[in-house]
Amino acid sequence: MKVCILASGSRGNAIWVRSGQSAILVDAGLSLRQLKQRLAAVDEDPGRLKGVIITHEHSDHIRGLPLLLRKIGVPVFATPGTAKVLAERLDLNGFELFDPGEKFEIGPFEVLAFPVSHDAAEPVGLVLEDRRTRLGLATDLGQVTRLVEERLKHCQGLILEMNHDPRLLKEGPYPWEVKQRIQSRFGHLANEKGGKLLARVHHADLDHVWLAHRSEVNNTPALQRAAAAEAVAGRGSEIHLTWQERPAETVEL
């Protein structure tokens, strides 16, 4: 399984995961032009795309979806709640529906979605598995539940949110109501909370961890990495930063 986080942050999110000659895209927050440019930059072929999974309907996760559907025409998978909102807002239809807790297949991938706490209609995290490898993803959530922890155990790769530093958020320029939303149980995980989650689900076979959805205003790469390094405490997992403006390195699990 090869993993490349093409973009991560409040201005657009897209994750490319390939097994053999088949790939899936998790979220479509890049324009189609940007998507193709970033895939070309990491030597990946959009013709391998077998399906798109939308984790929730916020604009930074679906901005490129309408044109992607028209130009490429692959199946798009979403929960009923997410699909309903996208149909109402963007007049998009024809989704492949799945319920949180349900397993489904896209090419060589078995996908398990699980509910997360975020201010969206029916948001989910994901576990993607091919015959050899398991990748867990939880990038937009305000609190960590027992179910989230359970689903993220036993993965060889994890993509985890470490969105903000509480002090920088408190002292930063955002309006009070936005700060309240970010740090609420329906908002985003702070570095410390993401680190605690990582420490609790860590195991000997967790080879790679990506730190996702970093705020450009209320966080820094150094603070994010420090929280993750403390969580893994020299236990061998490789830590990867992700970026808004460019793809992260491609990693083979």
CATH classification, class level: Alpha Beta
- N→C terminal distance: 5 Å
Number of E strands: 14
CATH homology superfamily name: Ribonuclease Z/Hydroxyacylglutathione hydrolase-like
Largest sheet: 7 strands, mixed
- Given as residue ranges, the uncertain stretches (5+ residues, pLDDT < 50) are none
User: What name is given to the CATH topology?
Assistant: Metallo-beta-lactamase, Chain A
Approximately how much helix is present in the residues? 25-40%
Strand content: 25-35%
Query: What sequence of helices (H) and strands (E) makes up the elements?
Result: EEEHEHHEHEEEEEHEHHHEHEE
Domain tally: 1
The backbone outline, from C-alpha atoms, is: globular
Could you say which structural class the secondary elements and strand pairing correspond to? Answer: alpha/beta
Mean pLDDT: 97
Please tell me the CATH architecture by its name: 4-Layer Sandwich
Radius of gyration: 17 Å
Q: How many distinct helices? A: 9
In spatial order, strands of the major sheet run 6-5-4-3-2-1-14
